[in-house]
């Protein structure tokens, strides 16, 4: 600036104004910085609040009456073709006039959980009216208070038609929060081209001809249930000592090199190409794989079947809960359920669907993996509900082995 | 004059703004949050939330629990880097000095695998090395592999996958370096009594060191953090630190453990890189 | 009229100086026999080249760009595989020896200093490869010799062009090779530096007494530095000999034009005596000493260097033993200071160049003035009429 010559003069006006403007700028800067750190106030201390919510308060006004629409997130390949005008999906929309946005964006329980954790944990909407989660994740979300209760009056078919073996889950005995979409058995699949039948889980983890060529599921409750059974414990009710016995057996199995891997989703591909010759598997996947490769067989292990289900849940802040309930109720009509089951090949959770199947596809009526004999489901086991601390401890133990 | 300098200075600062913002938003803030997360109390959970207790013990704990995958990561990455260096050097050398008019085509072929996704490429290796694939069968046929031996689920498969996937990261900087070497310098060395072998190690190799250093870094760093290859080509006994971090974050929801593992991995890699660059003697590189 | 010489002085022995140095020298010198290089693209860069370089001599390979000088050197160094012919060094055949096995070192056209090594290590490179003892002292001595002792720990990029050139020289010299090859090492330097480097290289060569083979297309450089100059053209050696002899008695129109400048005048041979040949040159008879006649034909080019031509006014008595050639007309005068260059149109239409020393004893002529020319018969030479009178003109003029 050309102020050097003016230096003798006491504070020329131009200079003063520059100064004050600069001062202002500085102040503004400080303010801005202050604002920023207010926004990011949690950074320096950076605690993360608990994700527990109260569904009674974290709840949106239901717009179902005025907005005939709903958004659902489901697993891939879990519904009959939606484009088919005679399919269940089109029929539902036609009957109710509800426009359904259907996302098949669930690939993995843990992954989906990670995706919605920040919103649901802070009571923010995830823009979905219905999500489908496996038992253990459904239980966790319900425990976290992220799930809205279903109005019992709105889903009469659910209460009337749910098969017995899926009732009385300890974590939601009265079907207050969840409605099974499909269910299945956890068992053993093997490739008959390469190995003889694998009849029990104990065989799976010890037979030497399977060494290095089996895979187990990454779902702790599925896999550890069998290990608990193999150490003589009851997965429905075990002690901490028993847990560690089972865990030791798991560690030994891993250390012995019996496993190729812990597999999440695409475990059947490895079974098909023979890198894995036997694995822990879900029944529905196996039935679908059998269409391509008849050598793949499913066995209910001698230790006993485990029946699980994927469950429809209404998340907090869903704005079309009534529409979602209509959906649930619709799929609990035996005839609709049969049409769905004929396509997806999982165990149908709806009573009366077996009879309805006569008219749809008689060849499936006696399929044990869609309509299992109630007697065979008598001694299914469940994994006992874990509290928060147990969950963390056992999940930690489990990941130490599966990832370490 | 002074004003000119000052203005240039201001423009300089202005030009730095995007880079600074970028660094701030995409590196400083996430890194800060990562470090903070790694110091949370490990007894926290999604239910109760996490308390910041500056729990440095996390680091000791994870190191003790997971030093094996750490070592594996570094070991596999180092082996893969070495393989890449040998293969990549030969390749880059051939392209630079011997390819003539095929040079550009060969370079494109080196990069070509990048046009398919990393995942797909690794999955193809799973197929290639598969127990009933033709590679294993051929090797069994010539008795290089026993009837029960396999390639999949061995450290060799992971190292091979890593080497395959990261080879272009090695070849390109190597090529850039070697291509710049004046072949007349090699002639000069042979004129000065260096046989081709000695000439290579006294002239070509030192002159290509900038490429060697950047190539090894570009290969080693991502290879050390990679878990896809271990996931698809290895078994439960060959899990690397990337698998652990992924499992802890996604499956176990154990943010503090996963964060301290990530920070540790980063520190270890940075430390190794610093030592390496020091040892490679950058001042020797012109 | 005739320009007849009784007994013209002959400049030195016959021009085959290089060849007749053979015999004793060939045992320990460098000998190239029938050396040929055909590149894969079919281009023949060197064709049946024969050359004998006595040990301890300084030979310059002179020739226009692309005539095969570098190719020849590279074959001697072993960097290029000859298509045919042999290379013998100190009595042993090294035609197929690997470069690192030959006692030959090169100062490259572009220096080719190792950028990653300092000056000291560049110079020490050859010694270290041969596992010589006492590297330190030898390198110090060599750096002293080329006056680079203070630069030992710098990198080549930190030196000036002239310093780099000296490093290149030192790096090759220190190995005391049987033959040192220098491929236009001074090409990149400015005139002044080039002159001082020429002196320096010459001094070093005399000091160490090694065989130097120096490639250049700068004729002045070749003539001031070398004992022997070999003029190359299109892959063959046109003529070889001591610089003065090459200049005074060129054997081809190419050499006559490439080295300096020549007037070439068509003539018919009238008679061949034992020591002199008489030629009719557009009606004027001139005599050429037999030793300077390089054609058997009936006709030939009579050659004379412009500075050997005397010029005088019509009827003026010229200070020359021969008769005069009258009827010239000055068409151009350029004053150069020490001398004046005239272009004189002769009666048969050809323009001849005449350099006249400005001694003050003769007056200056003006354009259009009629003049007479004359020269001493012993300076003339007779060349093959089948060679182009313009061969080597353009290339030779530049430098
Ligand atoms: N590798 C090559 N392949 C084909 N032709 C070549 C090759 N190298 C040189 N030549 C040709 O051979 C001829 C002689 O080349 P050389 O380098 O020996 O010339 P030079 O006499 O050293 O010329 P300059 O004075 O310009 O350096 C040139 O016409 C050149 O084009
Ligand atoms: Mg050349």
From TrEMBL, chain A:
UniProt-annotated location(s): Periplasm
CDD domains cross-referenced by the UniProt entry: PBP2_PotD_PotF_like (cd13590)
Taxonomic superkingdom: Bacteria
Keywords: Periplasm, Signal, Transport
Gene Ontology molecular function: polyamine binding
A biological-process GO annotation: polyamine transport
One GO term describing the cellular component: periplasmic space
InterPro entries: SBP (IPR006059), Sperm_putr-bd (IPR001188), TAT_signal (IPR006311)
Annotated PROSITE patterns: TAT
Name of the protein described by the UniProt record: Spermidine/putrescine ABC transporter substrate-binding protein
Organism field: Nocardioides acrostichi
UniProtKB/TrEMBL annotation, chain B:
A Pfam cross-reference name: BPD_transp_1
Superkingdom classification of source: Bacteria
Protein name: ABC transporter permease
Chief localization: membrane
Annotated coiled-coil segments of the chain: none
Residue ranges constituting the ABC transmembrane type-1 domain according to the UniProt record: 70-276
GO CC, alphabetical: plasma membrane
Transmembrane parts of this sequence: 12-35, 74-96, 105-128, 152-176, 197-221, 257-277
GO biological process: transmembrane transport
Keyword Iron carried by entry: no
Subcellular location: Cell membrane
The species this protein was found in: Nocardioides acrostichi
Family (UniProt): Belongs to the binding-protein-dependent transport system permease family. CysTW subfamily.
Keywords, alphabetical: Cell membrane, Membrane, Transmembrane, Transmembrane helix, Transport
Keyword presence, Cell cycle: no
Membrane topology of the entry: Multi-pass membrane protein
InterPro entries for this protein: MetI-like (IPR000515), MetI-like_sf (IPR035906)
TrEMBL record, chain C:
Region of interest (Disordered), residue spans: 1-23
Catalytic activity: ATP + H2O + polyamine-[polyamine-binding protein]Side 1 = ADP + phosphate + polyamineSide 2 + [polyamine-binding protein]Side 1
Biased composition (Low complexity): 12-23
Enzyme class: translocase
Gene3D superfamilies, A to Z: 2.40.50.100, Nucleic acid-binding proteins, P-loop containing nucleotide triphosphate hydrolases
EC number annotated for this UniProt entry: 7.6.2.11
UniProt cross-references to SMART domains, sorted A to Z: AAA
Keyword Nucleotide-binding included in the entry's annotation: yes
Gene Ontology molecular-function annotations: ABC-type polyamine transporter activity; ATP binding; ATP hydrolysis activity
Gene Ontology, cellular component aspect: ATP-binding cassette (ABC) transporter complex
UniProt keywords, alphabetically: ATP-binding, Cell membrane, Membrane, Nucleotide-binding, Translocase, Transport
Pfam families in the record: ABC_tran (PF00005), TOBE_2 (PF08402)
Residue span(s) of domain ABC transporter: 30-259
InterPro entries the record matches: AAA+_ATPase, ABC_SmlMolc_Importer, ABC_transporter-like_ATP-bd, ABC_transporter-like_CS, Mo/tungstate-bd_C_term_dom, NA-bd_OB-fold, P-loop_NTPase, PotA-like
Protein's job: Part of the ABC transporter complex PotABCD involved in spermidine/putrescine import. Responsible for energy coupling to the transport system.
Subunit structure: The complex is composed of two ATP-binding proteins (PotA), two transmembrane proteins (PotB and PotC) and a solute-binding protein (PotD).
NCBIfam families linked to this entry: potA (TIGR01187)
Family membership noted in the UniProt record: Belongs to the ABC transporter superfamily. Spermidine/putrescine importer (TC 3.A.1.11.1) family.
Protein name: Spermidine/putrescine import ATP-binding protein PotA
Source species taxonomy: Bacteria, Bacillati, Actinomycetota, Actinomycetes, Propionibacteriales
